[in-house]
Amino acid sequence: MNVLKKLTLQNLRFNKKRTIVTIIGIILSGAMICGVATIAASFQDLLIQNTIVTDGNYHASFYNVAYGDSKYITNNVSTIHSILSKGLGYSSFQQSNNENKPYIYLYAYSETAFNNLPINLKEGRLPEKKGEILITEDIASSGGPAYKIGETISLAIGNRKGNGRFLYQDTPLTEAEEIDVIFNEEFIVTGIIYRPRNEYYSTPGFTAVSYLDEDLLDNEDIVNVSILVKNPKKIFEIVPKMAADAGDVSFSYNNELLKWMGITQNKAFNNMFNTISLIIITLVVIGSVAVIYNAFAISVSERKKQFGMLSSVGATSNQIRKMIFYEGAILGLIGIPIGIISGIIGIGITLKIVNKLLINSMFNHDIVLRLIVSPYVILTTVLFMTITIFMSVYIPAKRASKISPVEAIRLNTDIKIKGKKLRTSKLTRYLFGIEGELALKNLKRNRRRYRATVFSLFISIVLFVSFSSFMKYGFITSNMYYGGIHYDVMVTKNENTIEEKMEFYQNIAELNDVERYSILRRIHTSTKTPYSQLSSFVQKHIVDNESYSMNEDGSYNHEIYIVAVGEEEFQRFAAENQLDISVFKDTKEPKGILINKNIIAGRIEYNPMNIKTGVNLYLKDNYEDGINPPANIAINIGAVTDNIPLGVPYTFYMAANLLVSDEVFDSIKALLHEESKVMADNTNMLIQTNNSEDIIKEIKALNPNDTESSLSIRDITLMKAEMKRIMTSIAIFLYGFVSLITLIGVTNIFNTISTNVALRRREFAMLKSVGLTPRGFNKMINYESIFYGLKSLLYGLPVGALISMWMYNAFDNIFDFRFVLPWREMIICIFGVFIIVFMTMMHSSAKLKKENIIDALREENL
């Protein structure tokens, strides 16, 4: 080890406080970078795990592929593994206790399909050969003792037809339909599964899954193929080519899984994600560079005389540069590993806390937040921190190597200023006294140190305000998803006639714990709407962007949902909006209430239409059977409101809700085709209560023989509690992130100000030697603190606000909400800056007060 390296190590030991503070800055920066990347990877892994369980482990699916042509997909060089499945058809299920589900719909899965598609096994095992079958728990309970594991079930399987066309699971049960039986087969029940997500309560067939033996397939057999590809980033290029090779078959993507892998065709989502990532990375980089750069810049500044002496005895510029780089390397070797380890340990502890909060939440499939420690994250952190330290060291090292020995020893380059630039206004003397004037002149004398201190404060303010905005917008967007749910329990009766359903709902309404309720029915219609009757939001964001095509007559198709909420809720809603209910009971001249408010997917709130009271709407039933013309409905707008009745869901773009009385709803339903009448009879009861647990027990007790398929009860309070737990988890990460940013800022401020004060020992001693009293010294220090705080806030708060607006614009690509500045955090920031600056200045100057003036004038900085 040469002399200069020994001298560098000695200097680090003698200046322990500065060395420790610099190492802490490196540790915090490393921990933040590694921690942010680790938590992002861990959350991404959680979302991918959850999507695989709920939607399946595949990237794309191809439909109605001839088995002989499937090799163009399954044997493609891009395919990791393929999944074969087949819809075999319907079988009558006479034992069903649900009149709307008289069938079993049979799928066949290959071995890889069972392992990669969403099958949630309740008991038993998966099929392993042809002739074995899985049935849902609804089939088991409907069928009674005959359908236990190990028992045989006989199915007559065929196509479901109605009105001369094939009917599938997305078409509810109709009156004029039948099963065209193709083959009969017996199966052994090997397991019972929970109802899959793609089996809705309105679908007419219970789900059953048998084994698909690929060896028994002919080339002409039609199958569905799902694949996992080697390079998902190229999925949108690969899949269309595969589909063309296999005979121009239709295909779809597993968009949910791809989205969490960071692959999506949604430009708005990509813009939001990329912009937010860019802002966060930029702020993290600036914060890290600032804290480390200031530490080394101050170190070089206070050792300038030492470098001059070394140059005078023969040290070259290159050797001085190497000294400073060596110092950076030593501090980096200590700080970077500790920072990475600290970040991983901190995130690991956080994940354990969050996993406890996520128990029984939406991620309830035995999925936990795993600590994903990626070697790429560690390498990236090391590389980033190395570059940061190099950048932070390079400028001070270059500056130190250029100074001449005489100038360095005399220190006459530290302060270069003409006398007139030190002048202050008489107002300063009048307001702050001689101490304030001295404080201001001290700042003007050494602008480099003053700017370094203000820059440290500025960066800390910008970081705090920006990440506070990020946290606030995160909470706003998360809350928007559940902001419109004002009921606590949702009940859906899936069998019997509409009259029997209404009777059942009325029995529920008479329970003591029911505070308010609505009985929701809907009819899906459409109308041709002139451009002038579309709201300004729809015109600007949909029509003018050519996102919606215009009809030949210049109108636009607009969806209208005719909604009924039951007599009691309709009366309450009419009274709340000061409407005459009798006007809306006339079935000969029907009138409705336009609900002119919409929230899209919890993201965007807007008015869908520009229509006033008295306008007539001419609606068309959206269901067409190809034989009879669709029903036409004329209805008058009796009122327009932004208020929402209990339980009425928001619609999608180019759609609105039209509220009518039960009498008008029934008169309109009478005009519809049979299939539309079935859809109109699908009802939900939405209940407000303070005791959801007890009321659910009471509802179940009304008819204890109901199964999950015949009676669905959803406890929305549990959903809200789950969301609260998830929000708490998000809050832990966001507050933790802001706390880390705050720590970095405080470290930066403390390091800069304390070193700045320490370097001015001789200056303060001179002032004391010419008569500056301890009280005057305190006042001067306080005024300097005020000037530092005011200048940094003057720049920091507006820049922080601009970055907050930049973040808002990024969120606005997906979410639509009012721009909000984090005023509370900005006020905290203002007080925090002054408190931290005052405390640091007073702490740093406390030791100087006790020093002997002569000793301070003689002593050099180490």
Task: Write up this protein.
This protein starts with a helix and ends with a helix. The protein contains 25 helices and 22 strands. Strands 2-3-9-5-8-6 form a six-stranded mixed β-barrel. A six-stranded mixed beta barrel has the order 13-14-20-15-19-18, surrounded by four helices. It has a two-stranded antiparallel sheet with strand order 16-17. Helix 2 runs antiparallel to helix 8 (267-302), helix 2 (16-55) packs across helix 10 (317-357) and helix 8 (267-302) packs antiparallel against helix 23. It has four domains: 1-56 and 268-414, no CATH class; 60-253, no CATH class; 418-485 and 717-862, no CATH class; 516-688, no CATH class. The chain is elongated and about 105 Å long. The chain is of the alpha+beta class and 862 residues long. Helices cover 51% and strands 18% of the residues.
Gyration radius over CA = 36 Å
Q: Structurally, how many domains make up the residues? A: 4
Number of helices: 25
Instruction: Report strand order across the widest sheet.
Output: 2-3-9-5-8-6
Structural class: alpha+beta
SSE order and pairing:
Elements: H1 3-14, H2 16-55, E1 60-66, H3 71-74, E2 79-92, E3 103-109, H4 111-116, E4 121-124, E5 132-136, H5 137-143, E6 152-162, E7 165-166, E8 177-193, E9 205-211, E10 222-229, H6 235-245, E11 250-253, H7 255-260, H8 267-302, H9 304-312, H10 317-357, H11 375-402, H12 405-410, H13 426-445, H14 447-480, E12 489-493, H15 498-509, E13 516-529, H16 536-543, E14 556-564, H17 567-576, E15 591-595, E16 598-600, E17 604-606, E18 616-621, E19 632-641, E20 655-659, H18 662-669, H19 674-680, E21 684-688, H20 692-702, E22 711-715, H21 716-758, H22 761-769, H23 774-811, H24 823-849, H25 853-858
Parallel strand pairs: 3-9, 5-8, 14-20, 15-19
Antiparallel strand pairs: 1-10, 1-11, 2-3, 2-6, 2-10, 4-8, 5-9, 6-7, 6-8, 12-21, 12-22, 13-14, 13-18, 13-21, 15-20, 16-17, 18-19
Helix pairs in contact: 1-10, 2-8, 2-10, 2-11, 2-21, 8-11, 8-14, 8-21, 8-23, 10-11, 10-21, 13-23, 14-21, 14-23, 14-24, 21-24, 23-24
